[in-house]
Amino acid sequence: MNYKEFQSCGVYVVVNMIAGKWKPLILHELFRNSERFSNLWRMMPRVSKKVLIEQLKQMEKDELIVREERSGFPPEVYYRLSDKGRSLGPILKQMEVWNSNLT
Predict the structure, then answer these.
(1) At what angle do helices 10-18 and 23-32 cross, to 10 degrees?
(2) Distance between CA atoms of residues 29 and 26, nearest Å
(3) Confidence of residue 54 (pLDDT cuts 50, 70, 90)
(4) pLDDT at 102
(5) CA distance 93 to 96
(6) How many other C-beta atoms lie within 10 A of the C-beta of residue 80?
(7) Closest Cα to residue 74, out of 43, 102, 37?
(8) Residue 64 pLDDT more than 80?
(9) What DSSP designation does 64 have?
């Protein structure tokens, strides 16, 4: 398999979408319910707003999450899992089970 073929490998694509220091924690929180940006930021230990925004933008680009702006004063931004993101649930659960079997 050459590098170009490897880049289209399903495992590579999925791992690339969920890899990152904060993406697993973001997914964990969003599986529980949709969240305002400010709430997500407070739940993440020691992450800067800039880094959190970058991670959220990447996940939005990969169609794992949906960003919703709600008008009002002040305007509110909410994030929730898309159908594609929600479909990761069984995979992430299986990863958790696999890890618990290692100990």
Answers:
(1) 80
(2) 5
(3) very high
(4) 87
(5) 5
(6) 14
(7) 37
(8) yes
(9) S
Angle between helices 49-61 and 23-32 (to 10 degrees): 70
Domains and their CATH numbers in the chain: 3-102 (1.10.10.10)
Listed in sequence order, the residues at least 6 apart from 54 whose beta carbon sits closer than 8 Å to its beta carbon are: none
The structure tokens 């959220």 sit at 56
By the 8 A CB rule, do 34 and 79 touch? yes
Q: Do the Cβ atoms of 79 and 37 come closer than 8 Å?
A: yes
**What tokens were used for 22?**
């904060």
Average pLDDT over residues 49-76: 94
Q: Are 79 and 35 in contact (CB under 8 A)?
A: yes
- Burial grade of 2 (CB within 10 A; 0-12, 13-18, 19 or more): exposed
